[in-house]
Amino acid sequence: MTTEQWLEVFRGIGKEMRAGLPAILDLETGRTAIGRGAGGDKTFPVDKWAEDIMVAAMEQVHATNGAAFTLVSEELGTRTFGAGTQVVLVDPVDGSNNAKNGVPFFGFAIALLDGSTLAELKAGYVMNLAVGDEFWAVRGKGAFKNGKTLRTPDTADIVIVSYEATDPANDLPLILPLLTSARRTRCFGSTALDLTYLASGATSVFVTATPSRTFDYAAGMLILEEAGGIVTDWAGSSLGSVRAGLDRTVPLLAAKNSVTHQKALALLRKN
Amino acid sequence: MTTEQWLEVFRGIGKEMRAGLPAILDLETGRTAIGRGAGGDKTFPVDKWAEDIMVAAMEQVHATNGAAFTLVSEELGTRTFGAGTQVVLVDPVDGSNNAKNGVPFFGFAIALLDGSTLAELKAGYVMNLAVGDEFWAVRGKGAFKNGKTLRTPDTADIVIVSYEATDPANDLPLILPLLTSARRTRCFGSTALDLTYLASGATSVFVTATPSRTFDYAAGMLILEEAGGIVTDWAGSSLGSVRAGLDRTVPLLAAKNSVTHQKALALLRKN
């Protein structure tokens, strides 16, 4: 299967989720966890429902196109579909805390890799499920929002910093010098969408202090990089050698361009 | 005009904005400020466009129903429609920073007062313009989201704290003890929506450190109070004597219930 064909599969899944979403979110039982996913977070009905849609699509791709790949997804963990080196890395609903609470800010994130590390990222797709906006990128072929090319600004100023803090008591003091240097802060509650809105020029920097998981950021990372942005760990090192999986990997520092990234790194090192 | 009739006018404005929004947000010129509003913020095309819709509706209400009132709106300032004691207090687009940057999280907020202070708040309406969800309340008659009654939880735990920081360098240190006590933080960039999502039980506490303006919070405040929540200043005092207007008034502390509010107040006083 070509990367473009994969992207069409990803888009189809996003559209199917978006169409069915109102019904699942209206469930009175939506706020009650029904288990815990392989990634460690609680599973809510919306997570399970979204993963079922995605898995059905993967089963179909395997059966009809003969694609062989390993699926890594937040809820189910790892499942092999034949013997292949490709990896499909998924967070069915990134921001499920928002979704289950009726806050319309959460997304579906899916990435294709030619091997097991992020250096082999080939395609990324993120849909903002609350509004239907689509973001995608293919390595070397640019990043897009609803089909329009994304380019991050080349300005060096830190206007808006968004962040994700899984453990505010630990995380906020670590990122405070960066947050207080900004004109505004944002904490939306969805890493995948944070990266796509950074890619679309809405924010200047995105930071996490608790190590993030690849299924949350791989797709958004490629979209940001293809739009001209940069993502590293807090040492400023490339994430190319990070393995796709369910574990927490490294804390992220992402920026609209390399000059802004250097400024943000310097601010983090103040601590 | 009855309060219910006013509410129908407010809903009509919200729906008209929602219907026309895609066209105005697609403008390439959307990110360039076209002036500064009476409330002090920059005016963007989306702000001006939304205010024009609202003002046209007010002119029609005055002309056809003979309603006499004072309009106070973020962009135009104050305009009288005949000699009456009622006040209509509006933020045409709350969260215009998000709107102009393509981040789908911003709302239309409008409140009706029988006089010039917040003690005389009679009705509040907020629409999340990005998704079309409507929130409203009439004093003594409850709060609603898309027609369904809202009740805040009676639990005392501080799970999610949302905040607005107009000046992060000054504001974040002041609210840090409250933020670090939470399991998660949020900063969405729209005070009106922060209050409505607190009213709908998605968050536990909402706080601002820079004094907020009544057109940003009056509508959401009544919705929250009618849902069982509480809004005060940082001294824990009622906002009833605050005058509706364009000025920055007091910093806000809002919570899902009074026990949670007392816990949050104690955390703020740690500083």
CATH class of the largest domain in chain A: Alpha Beta
Spans of chain A of at least 5 consecutive residues whose pLDDT stays below 50 are none
Backbone structural class of chain A: alpha+beta
Rg of chain A, nearest Å: 17 Å
The helix/strand order of chain A is HEEHEEEHEEEEEEHEHEHEEH
Note the quaternary state here: homodimer
Outline type of chain A? globular
Q: Portion of residues in helices of chain A?
A: 25-40%
Question: What do you see in this structure?
Answer:
The structure is a homodimer of 271-residue chains. Chain A has 271 residues and is of the alpha+beta class. The first copy, chain A, folds into 2 domains: 3-149, Fructose-1,6-Bisphosphatase, subunit A, domain 1 (Fructose-1,6-Bisphosphatase, Chain A, domain 1), CATH 3.30.540; 160-269, D-Maltodextrin-Binding Protein, domain 2 (3-Layer(aba) Sandwich), CATH 3.40.190.80. The first copy, chain A, has 7 helices and 15 strands. Chain A has helices spanning 3-25, 45-65, 96-100, 168-179, 191-199, 214-226, 258-269, and strands at 35-36, 42-43, 69-73, 77-81, 86-94, 107-113, 121-128, 134-138, 143-145, 148-149, 160-164, 184-186, 205-208, 230-232, 253-255. In chain A, the strands form 3 sheets. Chain A has an 8-stranded mixed β-sheet with strand order 4-3-5-6-7-8-9-10, with helices on both faces. The longest helix of chain A has 23 residues, at 3-25. The mean pLDDT of chain A is 95.
